[in-house]
Amino acid sequence: MPPSVPAPVSLDVDLPGLRVRVLHWDGRPDRPAFVLLHGLASNARFWELVAPVLAEAGHAVWAPDLRGHGQTQKPDVGYDFATISSDVRGLVDRLQIDRPILAGHSWGGMVALEYAGRNSDDRRGPRGLALVDGGIGQLNDYPGATRESTLAALTPPRLEGTPVDDLKARLHASPRGFPIDAAREGLILANFDLRPDGTVAPHLSFDHHMRLVEAMWDSPVYRLFERVGCPVLLVPAKGGDVRGVREQVYLELKERGVARAQQAVRHLRVAWMESTDHDIPLHRPEALARLLLELAAWEPD
């Protein structure tokens, strides 16, 4: 964290039927605020390496734990993009954030895209939209994909009851070689309840996770591109070495998504993040923050 930036404040914001935990970094009122949305089974702390750079540049930053995640409440209903987009809208209303820069990573990119499509002409709609390796490709555009095969491919491992030391060993055994230092390890472990017996349980339950995966399959990403009126930044990841057929097909899916966005979005910039993996906010936080600051300063013709 830049030395001039204080640690974030953790707030609980009450919405109808949902209490949301939000991390907040203060900023100047004359600069647009950022709302940062984490990925599936992640949490607001995932942005802790990016947000201080934005705050140091004078921007207020808000990063919520979305429904079912982190320290936010976990009702048994509402695991669809319409509801979670409405949660974000309620949060933006309660915090009185006008025209934020909205950024979403992975599944959070799909939430951000849904929000932008639903609120494009509203004062709470985004001034700019950043989709960080998510919300770019449409899952049913994956060659040969079916609903059943996609749900099977995206079913998470059953980590409840895993000893925390075993989980840490998995994190440090990444075949890509991206560094997992103590700070990054802590951000990933924040996805879990650390039990007194030394085991973990994901904050997002397995059932809620799978309902969100079903919603991902149903999401009409390409139609949503057509409803976005603000400037859009796409930040797809591209590893230095694509391994196996599955990775190659996924890369091609993102490339097709970029091409569809180029056809549908009037004000679009694409910044491929080379030599990194999906977790850009962890592995390339400074580079990502620079791109987000450029988006905040972008005044399209």
Summarize the helices and strands and which ones pair or pack.
Blueprint: E1 9-15, E2 18-25, E3 34-37, H1 51-56, E4 61-64, H2 81-95, E5 101-105, H3 107-118, E6 128-132, H4 147-153, E7 162-163, H5 164-172, H6 182-189, E8 192-194, E9 199-202, H7 206-218, H8 221-225, E10 232-235, E11 237-238, H9 244-264, E12 268-270, E13 273-274, H10 280-283, H11 285-297
Parallel strand pairs: 3-4, 3-5, 5-6, 6-10, 10-12, 11-13
Antiparallel strand pairs: 1-2, 2-4, 7-9, 8-9
Helix pairs in contact: 2-3
Question: What would you note in describing this structure?
Answer:
It is built from eleven helices and 13 strands. The two termini are 35 Å apart. α3 links the parallel β5 and β6. 41% of the residues are buried. With 301 residues, the chain is of the alpha/beta class. It has a single domain, classed as Alpha/Beta hydrolase fold, catalytic domain (Rossmann fold).
Could you estimate the helical fraction of the residues in percent?
A: 25-40%
First and last CA, distance: 35 Å
Stated plainly, the CATH topology is called Rossmann fold
CATH architecture: 3-Layer(aba) Sandwich
Largest sheet: 8 strands, mixed
- Can you identify the CATH class? Alpha Beta
How is the largest sheet built, in terms of strand order? Answer: 1-2-4-3-5-6-10-12
Mean pLDDT reading: 93
Radius of gyration (CA) equals: 18 Å
Number of domains: 1
* Percentage of residues in strands: 15-25%
The CATH homologous superfamily? Alpha/Beta hydrolase fold, catalytic domain
- Oligomeric status of the shown chains? single chain
Judged by helices, strands and strand pairing, the structural class is alpha/beta
